[in-house]
Amino acid sequence: MSVAKKEYKRITVKSLIEMKEHGEKISMLTAYDYSMAKIVDSAGIDVILVGDSASNVMAGHETTLPITLDQMIYHASSVIRGVKRALVTVDLPFGSYQSDPKEALRSAIRIMKESGAHAIKLEGGKEIKESVKKILNAGIPVMGHLGLTPQSIYKFGSYTVRAKQEEEAAKLKEDAIFLEKMGCFAIVLEKIPAQLASEVAESVSIPIIGIGAGNGVDGQVLVLHDLLGMTYEFSPRFLRRYMNLYEDMSNAISQYVDDVKDGDFPNDSEQY
């Protein structure tokens, strides 16, 4: 059954809470530059995540770990300039918040001041409580991230589904409730069993955004380059490709190369 949508001129943290209360699903995508952000925002997305996945899709790294705070601020600043409606949330990169709550606060403040972003996201539960507390006390909205946390890939050893065992599932539930009580406005759940994700969504009043976490949550997030079919080698079960841009772009560029080589471009109408 479809749910009547409230029209929001600007999405805020409060807007997302209202969407959950009214049963309206929340749409979220990544973006890392001005041009893409402008398109995504104008298409009606609710939340844009300037993800540390930029380390993979923009810089070509194997993991999210190498990207720096300065680089995240650069990407976030580019995105903000293209956005009029969506809430823009920025990942705190690896090493900027895990060990020192004061450093976490400084990192979050830099992102907010230098990029103009609206919120930050960070991975983990009770183990990062002091960092979360300091950032929230400074008035900065925080989105949590539980389940598969890519910044901990070397701890996990793989990108397989998390929280399949009872002990890990129980901890994830506890962490979600803990993050809500701390004051986080939403939580991303990545690559966990659908039933568990649904139980978490029902146990908290803040929105739960899933990626590989089934349809029983309050919204969904994907990496834009995956959705558009630009990253052809990445095919997890949870990914739905809405285009095949890799093939379309390759064909267009090949055609351009041929036209230049053949002297067909530019033609008479394309000259001054």
TrEMBL record:
A biological process term (GO) from this entry: methylation
GO CC term (a single one): cytoplasm
Binding site for 3-methyl-2-oxobutanoate: 52-53, 91, 121
GO molecular function terms attached to this record: 3-methyl-2-oxobutanoate hydroxymethyltransferase activity; magnesium ion binding; methyltransferase activity
Extent of the signal sequence: none
SUBUNIT field: Homodecamer; pentamer of dimers.
Family statement: Belongs to the PanB family.
NCBIfam families, per the entry: panB (TIGR00222), PRK00311.1 (NF001452)
Name of this protein: 3-methyl-2-oxobutanoate hydroxymethyltransferase
Organism: Sinomicrobium oceani
Gene this protein is translated from: panB
